[in-house]
Amino acid sequence: MLATQSIASPYPYFFEAISWDYKGKEDKARECYANAMCNPAFPSTVWDFSYWQDLTSGELRAIARRLLPKEEEYRKYFHLSTYSCPHHYLNFDDDYLTAKAADTLVVLPTAVGAALMLYETAVQANPFNARNFAGASLLSVQNGDSVKAAYYLNEGLLIDPENKGLQALLNVWKGGHK
After folding, report:
1. pTM score over 0.85
2. CA–CA distance from 49 to each of 52, 54, 125, 168, 177 (Å)?
3. φ, ψ of residue 161 in degrees (nearest 5)
4. I need a labelling partner for 146 at 20 to 30 A (CA). Which of 22, 28, 125, 173 fits?
5. Is the separation of the CB atoms in 1 and 71 below 8 Å?
6. 17 or 170, which is more confident?
């Protein structure tokens, strides 16, 4: 389902843990459960999937076939964009992602593409923080992609028209595109 693919969701780790539990890999399952519970979106009462262990692989496939039409219906309305950010249990936290982007540029100033990927993931994790859009816009310019830079600038300004970083980028943009 969509929640298992979302970077802001605790469910990728949760369902991975269930899978490891089913396979008898308790250490890997424990690590994944802990990663899922670090996410503030993790529910206080979790669904009990322990009964899955009693199902045969054929029964599990039958459940998957029954759920597939529902998932396809959801996908009509919600289309996830793919992202290439490495799987990490803190990817739900845009502050973590932007700090990691800054660290990446400190260590390797030419790693603009890697830092941009982290800012784009931060935008996905928290699309209401204009600072994420400002960083993605600036790094898109540095990466030579003015179309993407304009997109992030525009979307960020729609969220926070008074954001100083976005305003500075807009002033530079207007000065260079008269």
Report:
1. no
2. 6, 10, 27, 51, 57
3. -65, -20
4. 125
5. yes
6. 170
